[in-house]
Amino acid sequence: MQRPDHKFKISFDSRTVFAGILGLASLSAAIYLINFKMFDLVPVFSGQSHIQLYVIMFLSLSLLYLTGVFLVIKFMPKEDAPWKLAGVIIFFAIVFRLCLVPSDPSVLSKDMYRYIWDGRVQQDGINPYLYAPQADELEHLRDSQIYPNINRKDYPTLYPAGAQIFFRIFYALAGSSVTAYKGVMVFFDIVTLLVLTALLRAYNFNATRIIVYAWNPLVIFEIAYSGHLEGLTVFLMATALYLYTIHKKIPATIMLALSAAVKLYPALLLAAFLNRGARIKGITTFSATIIFLYLPFLGAGGKISGFLPVYLKNPYESFNVGVKIFLMRLIPGLDYYLLSLVFLIALAITGLVILLKDKKDDDVMRYAFILTGLLIVLMPASLHPWYVVLMVPYLTIYPNPAWLIFTCTVTLSYLKYTSPQGIMPTWILLIEYLPLFLLLAAGWMLKYRLEGSRFKVQG
Fold first, then answer.
1. How far is Cα 227 from Cα 31, in angstroms, rounded to an integer?
2. How many Cα atoms occupy the beta-carbon half-sphere of 326 within 13 Å?
3. Among 351, 320, 288, which Cα is nearest to 424's?
4. Among 107, 155, 217, 301, whose Cα sits 20 to 30 Å from the Cα of 50?
5. pLDDT in tens, 192-205
6. pTM value?
7. How far apart are CA 239 and CA 241, in angstroms?
8. Average pLDDT of the residues in 25-45
9. pLDDT in tens, 329-359
10. Cα–Cα nearest to 319, from 432, 213, 153
11. What does the DSSP 8-state code read for residue 430?
12. Cβ pair 6, 28 in contact under 8 A
């Protein structure tokens, strides 16, 4: 006699999933539309700072987001045509972003003002690497809108050549408009949705998986609200991944170089893109693209590195670097800059190992995902929340729970700015990093056991 199966199983059809997604989208759209106006509409928030209110909003949106991701990935029937639901997901993704474009970005970050300033400096015919904003040589460029909001007025720019070229082009077209700048970033972000949808199709995944990137609150706020350069960086990186997937390797390498020239960290991913027989050609293409972009700025000489050396050396620039802070608190007296160099060397060695590994074309996404995860864990300087946006495109292919949750908890790091001493509370680091490390370790152990079981059966 067969024993009854008491296992509880939930089963949703496509209509149920569609209805659930519409409900989650409507709630999310209401929050994005109201955003910081909650101060006036909901009396209970009147005593909170803007950052505290942001964290409350963000965590609420994260709960809706994770529910939507779970519904789509777990319950969307694979045999159903996904394009109708994918269209709804992308439509609301655009709505979420447009709700935030008109908002003042200065609550969370003032980086955008530096972007516009660097464009203004170049439009005046001055190399942005030569002078800090407070230098006498730039006094004639100061105004009451952009200059007062610039961080680190006593240091030259941090941003590499690709970013500087973009700043100049934007300033020539739109001047000092904050709203226009955010609109451009949102444009690139929307195109990224289309690129990732094509990438999902190339990997034979359901197009509805685009929800992982499209509705991620970290992506939406850091690009559409704060206007961070990740809008452009991730677009270029995602395009590079897609081009490689369809076997356009040289264009893919050029796009990756452009991405690295906007924000430096995608340069590590070159190791995943190059394989035996194409390494020299790939490295030459990548290097030539970077050098070409730096040609207009070579007049700065040794100053061309800008603020970057200080960024790596100064412990006061450290922000939310989990492993690094844990080590420094565990071993008092560790030199901050030395540890930065150790982390950089560890990343370089890992990249070299992957570079020299005999890889298949299908391996590029997996190795790029691994390198991006290591970069976030071993970040040598600061890990601002917007840096983690780089991870989210990979989660459409590898919806790893550890990283999905981390993209939602990393925003707690903003609470550092509300602490009395301006020091990151330990409890925030624990909430961010412990689930990440524990879930990653559990996933690795489970994979190891499953692979071991398969080996035994085959043996």
1. 19
2. 14
3. 320
4. 155
5. 999 999 999 999 99
6. 0.90
7. 5
8. 82
9. 777 777 777 888 888 899 999 999 999 888 8
10. 432
11. H
12. no
